[in-house]
Amino acid sequence: MQKFIFAAAILVSIAESQILRQGKCPLMITAQQNFSVEKFSGLWYEQVYTRRFSGLNIRCNVEHFTQAGPKNFSLNSFFHSEKSESEFHRENITYHIRGIGEVKQSANNSGILRVTIPKMNVTSDVWILETDYKNFAVLWNCVDMQGANYMENVEIITREKYAKNKVLLNALNVLPKKKIAKTNLSYAAQTNCPSYEKQLAKFNLTGDALADD
Q1: 212 located within any domain
Q2: Mind listing the pLDDT tens digit for each residue in 102-134?
Q3: How many CA atoms lie within 13 A of 74 on its CB side?
């Protein structure tokens, strides 16, 4: 997996998706002001992500944020990979990645998160570009590379497993406001998903509607 990561809904995309662009990371990108870890805590479903090139065909990605302090949190990601099924002849393979993080100190308590995945020994910053806490959140990460290039990643997560079109449109409209391109985005699969109830219970997390009827 790549060492250049997108950390937050992150945890799957941490090593799986980023787009190489010319230039340096934009300096004028702003994150959500007065960000609240408490309001952001809970279950989120991945809906849109920067295209992945690993071939793992990741789907059914969910993220659970748990507040661990005024500016600290833990983050658990659960996802499924169809390629693993076909290659290793195993069904219902569930992957779990755990991260820990904190809100970086800033004048306006901006939603810039420093997320670490201990098992991978990687740390990266992710911007919560905008969230209403109840419906959607738009996340962005950027890493300058050697030379005149940078890697960036976008992810949209929602509270509902099957997000309404209006919610997705509102989230996607955040990108042009921040002068971030919508290119190389894909819609996530949240259908025919395995149940993650046992995994959530193991880590004392709560969730609902985690499996299809």
Answers
A1: no
A2: 999 887 789 999 998 888 787 888 999 999 999
A3: 9
CA distance 91 to 208: 22
Cα–Cα distances in angstroms (integers) from residue 174 to residues 25, 63, 128, in the given order: 18, 21, 11
Q: Encode pLDDT of 156-193 as tens digits.
A: 999 999 999 999 999 999 999 999 988 889 899 898 88
Residue 45 lies in a domain: yes
Please state, in angstroms and rounded to a whole number, the distance separating the CA atoms of residues 201 and 89. 27
In a domain, 211, yes or no: no
Contact 128, 138 (CB under 8 A): yes
Indicate the pTM of the whole model: 0.84
